[in-house]
Predict the 3D structure of the following.
Amino acid sequence: MRSGPLAYALLAVGILVLASTPLYADNYVVRTAAIVAMYGALATSWNFIGGFTGYPSFSTAAFFGLGCYVGAICQRAGVPMVLAWLIATLMVGAFAALLGAIILRLKGHYFAIGSIAVVEVCRLIVSSWSSLTGGGDGLNLPLLTWGPEQVMRFFLFVMLAILILSLIATALVDRSRLGFGLRCIHQNEDAAAMVGIDTTRYKVAAYTLSAVFCAAAGAAYASWTGYIDPTESFQILMTVKVPVMAMLGGAGTLAGPFLGAAAFVLLEEVFWANFLDWNRAILGVVIVLLVFFLPGGLLSLARKRSAGGPA
Amino acid sequence: QETIKIGAPLALTGGLADEGHKQDLVWKMWVEKVNAAGGLAVGDKKMKVELIEYDYQSEGQRASQLAEKLINDDKVQFLFAPFGSGHTKIVGGVGERYQVPTIACVASSESVFDQSLKHLFGTLSPNGGMTTAMVKMFKEKFPDTKTIAVLGRDDVFPKSMAEGIAKAAEAQGLTVAYKELYPVGTMDHAAALSSIKAAKPDWIYVSGYTQDLILARKQMQDLGVTAPIVTMVTGPSYKEFTEGLGKLADGITSSSWWHHATNYTGQGVWPTTADFYKDFQAKTKGADPDYVHGSCAAAGEVIAEALKRTGSLDKAKLRDAIASTDIQTFYGPIKFGPTGMNLPRELPIIQVQDETIKVLAPADIKNAELIAMPK
Amino acid sequence: MAIYSQILANGLMLGALYACLAVGFSLVWGVLNVINMLHGSFIILGGYLTWFAWHGWGIHPIVMLPVVGALLFALGFALQKLVINRVVSAPVLTTLTLTFGLDMILYNVMTYWFTATPRRVQLDLGAVSLGPVTLPVDRLVGTALALVLTLALYAVMRGSNIGRAIVAVRMDRSAAELMGIRTERIYAITFGIGALMAGVAGVVFASVFPITTNVTGTYLGKAFVVCVVGGLGSVPGALVGGLVLGLVESLAGHWFGPQQAITAGFVLMLAILLTRPTGLVGVRGYE
Amino acid sequence: MTEPILKLEGVCKNFGGLKALTDVSFALAPGEVVGLIGPNGAGKTTLVNVVTGKLPASTGRILFEGKDVAAQKPHEAARRGLARTFQIVQPFPQMTVIENVTAGALFGGGAASVGDARDMARKSLDFVGLAPLADRPAAQLALAARKRLELAKSLAMQPKVLMLDEVNAGLNSSEIDGALALIRKIAESGVTVLIIEHLMKVVLSLSKRLLVLHHGQMIADGPAKEIVADERVIEAYLGQKYAARLKELHHA
Amino acid sequence: MPEPRLDPLLELAGVTSGYGQIQVLWGMDLAVHSGEVVALVGSNGAGKSTLLRTISGQLAPREGTIRFDGRAIGGAKPDAVLTAGIAHVPEGRRLFRGLTVRDNLLLGAYLRTDKDDIARDLAWVFELFPILAERQRQDATTLSGGEQQMCAVGRGIMSRPKLLMIDELSLGLSPRMVEHLGEALIQLNKAGQTILLVEQDVMTAFELSHRAYIMENGRVTRAGASTELMADPTVSEAYLSI
Ligand SMILES: Nc1ncnc2c1ncn2[C@@H]1O[C@H](COP(=O)(O)OP(=O)(O)OP(=O)(O)O)[C@@H](O)[C@H]1O
Ligand SMILES: Nc1ncnc2c1ncn2[C@@H]1O[C@H](COP(=O)(O)OP(=O)(O)OP(=O)(O)O)[C@@H](O)[C@H]1O
Ligand SMILES: [Mg+2]
Ligand SMILES: [Mg+2]
């Protein structure tokens, strides 16, 4: 992943646009910006395992949902909000590390299935452990008492902060031994082990990184909506959507997942606002077209233009 | 000319699409009727009503997103909450934050209203009212009833019904021989039904959504699981249930919040239940409305009344006016309790007899007696 | 003890239906390396066609079996030939994205036309009793059909030229070309067979379960589990996986309550993934 | 007699019912160059896999510098100085040649930073003569160059023992001459080399000592000249015609 | 009827070919007559495999003509080329995992419909390689390297080709196995099979063939009778040293 200045410029512009929405736009736009930031963070997070390492992970919703629940349970126990988010992040990170040590022994298809099963199992456990999680009734969280504008801005900046942290982590990993090793694993895991890469540890690190930002986003999201339940928190759809976003933008790049998330969320926005009955189908058509005409993701457009002729 | 804007995030696709379409249908009927009459009275002038709907695809996250869009972009003055307790909570939370009065027509779990959302009002009565009376009546009619088996879907409303009935049954001296929840996404009830069969209960009570209940009834038949009383909540309230089961629906009891056989008179565009029934039949070419239709169609009257009384569009005033609503409609009385929920009333108990819905209680609208399940 | 024979019978009957549901998905995944997100919708489409034929013209589902099979084969064949083949050798995430998009379209079309109302073909054939065990006739027939169809597919895969060609293409596309196999055509046939099996599963399901578009995700999830338990890409794998899953869910439902039945299925799947990633009867080679 | 650097004692490896290695024992002295031959399927590659931790041994001890390493993972083997090449070359295809080798230096060769690793990689590319292709993606290389890349990568790991699994297969005679010179150079730098090869020309011109595996058993271990005249080896491996050809050459 | 002895069975004239932007073949001329064994040797990356792929239709020639049995087959798809009578045993055996030895062999006859003849040919392959008959129910990829190579050749024969092209017969095989396979090829040829053999081990190649071509950088640099080439000091210097 060679991230040129273009990628950084795109990112900076994107983040600035999102951050400045409260200055000129109404609350709904701010909210959309916060959702873009949230999905951006999820997709960027996924990139560690899916993009760098090339493992088709579908665990995003599990981490997000666990983040929701750990955060909510802490908050209900009286832990201050931000501390609750932190606890959620750490606990889910630890959980991902443990889980990773087990399911990362699987490769390819089997890993994909294992990771998707994790979402289901988490959902089922959360919904049957009613004493702690409220089961199918879900959990209510204390609503913030500030005015709607303030709440919205606050969560926009929280989501942006998570996004920026995930991007910084990406940039750091990209340059480090870890990033190099992960890319080797992506290319050829056997050979990677043979040159001395502790593949298990590296993969677990990537998987954990792919979890922590999701958990943080989930915990913040729970505080934001004020009510969570198992079906909403562990959505299989989210688990498929996030990799799709990353693919749309360009998996394995710094800016791609964020751009893909932004494009996806905005497209959804346009379609369901304008096509009541056919929004899903139209989005489906757009996805199909993108797969055909931009298989390398949106970023490949920019790259094609800047790269010129064949090397 | 200014209009009154009501926003409704609806599930037009996804798991709750059918319910969403019902809401969409009657709300549109109501708006049409109101506007044909010149609009709603706000003080002494009349204003047209505009209904703005978005499809939230049965996804909670999106429901809250669309509620915000309705408030911020479309500047609606009121929200109609979508179907189901869970999504009502989510949309209610958004309404609360923006202090936009939100009318929930299809949420009956007390847990939705006990979180001090000051702007959320529900037209259904608490579902606690559906259990105690039912146990009492069945015990009275069938004194041999000693044991009950309960199978409930693990979802806000069906779960609270399952738990409520078990509690009410125990309180009145029945033995709960079996009580389990099944998770959302269950494809098959054979295992649970086989266990129930082994327990030989006098009463089988199943809660869930239409498709779960159709499957459960069908499998009961297949596996030879029977009891003198079989209750499926809220199966027979829906025509999809009776249509899907045909003959098999016979004998099944349930409770409901409203039935078109009732005869209420009140204010609004449909002064009597019969008026509404007639319009509805005309619109749907002969279909029968269920409680979702009734409750949603009546919800508009809450708004109409509040506007009439306050004579302004001030949100805070409107909220207070709604809180003190006390009206009669074709759907029955609407008067909100301290949590914002319609006050308890005697709810209809119904039974399918010869593939049609009969009302067993309350006494004033009753048109049949409870019969045992056909063998 | 009587209850156990009933529970086992329930489990086996359910398991056969699961096998029928999963076999096409497994084949497409194993051979084409495509995780077919459309599979659940194909099943429901087959189910709806059956329902409409039955409801509208009183056509018996058995008659619809070959009709729906042929229609879905054609649909699958065309989709693969015209759309999916263009990216079939791309990484699995790309094809997944593609079928995800296609499913959004199909799903939307189906909910628009058919609505989400649960429909059921009311055959209500009653039940037969074998000692303490009650066997619903429609489910028994469904089970038999599921088994026969799955075994028929197995026979095709094992004994016919097309079957050999499908395996060959899966294992080594360019070597298969050298055998004179037209790989794109085999891909389309395989996807067609996958859709066909989904369609006939839909016919069987419509006669046994209420069907609605809401359950496409559930079906897809079951197909996943069955594939893993039995082994990816093989017909016997789907059969064994389906039966084992049916039994486990049935027993767990009895012992721990229905709430834990699905969890038990997933736990079984995770356990198998970790100890025997190739499934109970799977072949190696899909890593 | 110096302490052996690598020593196997009674190593067995089973795949289900198949006995791929049965009771294999031998030792390599530091700096030695030894050939390992045997019919197809004899278990040679399996042996390398077991020694480098890619596959766990069923039973037996593997001593590296006197320490039992039978339970090691591949990356531990690499860091200890046990490097290998793959019979079917395994580059990181989308990475450039230099990046491939850098990976070896960074993770196996103990380089302190990515920059250091790059310097080490450059040296090892020079050593094998791949420097001109340093910036090509590995996937574009022809077979001979790929095999060299494997070598360069292994060298960058600063190995003490290097196991070469058919690095010369598919090369023609003149290319083989180049490869031979390279392997000799590696051996001269003190690395212990185990060569697996079906090309007798390579094996004989590099190693004085030969090991012969047959059906997973070590059927011979000794000086190359004696081994190629051994009836069992001729029967199992060389074939009469080839043995005759070899003998002719010896007389000439 | 054309005179079979004079007209070559396969004839390439000025064929160029390659992958994407990389051109590999730069004007190949080559002929194979009925009943011959022709060897093709050359350094690594010379383009031998590319040539076979171009003939068998996996690659389309960019220029030049390929004639087989009197018909132009340049640019035809692999199944058409196979139907015309050319079988290609690819480099590295490429047997199908998960299929038995027998199924692998039968796949060689995928395009044939003559059931009885297929059975007869299968029997003939088993006669040629008795070990395959012994192992016919076993998963093909569990065979030893040499046995796999036999199976691959057998699979080629199963299409009953007029021309059998074999890429890298001896790659990774023990000397004894190479000898064994060589004998089998000679037997095949005696039974009338025309063979185009690509072989890295030049000594083996010359021993097995009647004529040979030497390729370098996508062109033919030498051609002639194998015995002559073997005796040529320039050739033996470049390609032969034990
Ligand atoms: N992972 C495995 N699972 C099952 N059997 C295996 C596995 N790896 C190797 N084998 C079998 O073990 C035996 C030894 O194989 P190995 O690759 O070590 O042979 P080899 O001596 O390297 O042969 P060659 O000279 O052909 O490379 C063979 O019969 C092979 O089929
Ligand atoms: N799929 C491919 N894409 C791009 N280039 C290729 C491809 N396959 C081969 N090449 C290139 O084409 C050239 C000729 O390769 P080819 O395999 O035909 O050589 P060969 O004579 O068969 O060599 P060998 O003796 O190694 O088998 C080489 O430079 C190689 O790198
Ligand atoms: Mg080997
Ligand atoms: Mg070649």
Q: What stands out?
A: The pocket of magnesium ion (ligand 3) is lined by residues D 44-45, 87, 165 (CB under 6 Å). Chain C touches chain E through 19 residues (CB under 8 Å). Chain C has one domain: 2-116+135-275.
